[in-house]
Amino acid sequence: MAGARRAPRQVVFEARDVKVSYGGKPAIAGVDVKIYGNLVTAIIGPSGCGKSTFLRSLNRLNDSVKGFTLDGQVLYRGHDVYGGGVDRVEVRRRIGMVFQKPNPFPKSIYDNIAWAPRNLGMKSDLDERVEKALRGAALWDEVKDRLRQSALGLSGGQQQRLCIARAIAIEPDVLLLDEPASALDPIATAAIEDLMHTLKRRYTIVIVTHNMQQAARVADRTAFFSLDVIDDRRVGTLVEYDDTEVIFGRAADTRTRDYVSGRFG
Ligand SMILES: Nc1ncnc2c1ncn2[C@@H]1O[C@H](COP(=O)(O)OP(=O)(O)OP(=O)(O)O)[C@@H](O)[C@H]1O
């Protein structure tokens, strides 16, 4: 089981009675959760229970979705992420995101990593910044001799580590990972999982995964979401949230036990 407990834990995110709807239809409701610093927190649950919806609400990535509304509060280090006057660019700078499908820009490896720092005016020592990010994503040794070649020539696993390097190049505080290894083969998946163990020393990581073994391998804390029927609608709710070893070994809720043992979902 991953990682030892650290005390005292820093609360990085606090969701308070969060409800997210699309076009007036609730996708998740009543979500109360605290996410702690320098841990890996996994979000698991059956398809459609709102894992990605919740993840994307942490850095306002749903804002551009037509009909999206959020009730309740999402606090990031005590600040209301949806409060008036919040700079969305700053939110995204501090809270980076990596998606399921590797999505490098059609540019060189170097320019992929340098893109966000350049845009944010972090132009000094760019070569060092690029190298540091690639080292941080355990990719440097594989690409150091071809930095000027297209990132599209990398393997899928390398592309995903490039996307992680791109995210950490601007030194965020948090990394949100939405099924980061589901499109990768087992070896590339293992590389990403190893990387998470290293990255959590520096970053707070929240990962959505369908793969329960993966959650058990990488996460310190695990949140299990499921679908509840509320007012005749199926809505995602947080069933149980605890240390990963509790969720997978001695969960309190029958629904959690059934899901992690493969009897449901
Ligand atoms: N952009 C959107 N517009 C409208 N409805 C959406 C949108 N995104 C998600 N939903 C709805 O919200 C609910 C939760 O979806 P979400 O993708 O968050 O679940 P998930 O648990 O991540 O699913 P999966 O495991 O299949 O990826 C679903 O009913 C989905 O149809």
UniProtKB/TrEMBL annotation:
InterPro entries: AAA+_ATPase (IPR003593), ABC_transporter-like_ATP-bd (IPR003439), ABC_transporter-like_CS (IPR017871), P-loop_NTPase (IPR027417), PstB-like (IPR005670). CDD domains: ABC_PstB_phosphate_transporter (cd03260). It holds the Pfam family ABC_tran. Residues 13-252 form the ABC transporter domain. SUPFAM superfamilies: P-loop containing nucleoside triphosphate hydrolases. GO terms for cellular component: membrane. It comes from the Bacteria. GO terms for molecular function: ATP binding; ATP hydrolysis activity; phosphate transmembrane transporter activity. One of its GO terms (biological process) is phosphate ion transmembrane transport. PROSITE patterns: ABC_TRANSPORTER_1, ABC_TRANSPORTER_2. Keywords: ATP-binding, Nucleotide-binding, Translocase, Transport. SMART domains: AAA. Gene3D superfamilies: P-loop containing nucleotide triphosphate hydrolases. This is Phosphate ABC transporter ATP-binding protein. It comes from Baekduia soli. The lineage of its organism: Bacteria, Bacillati, Actinomycetota, Thermoleophilia, Solirubrobacterales. The gene is pstB.
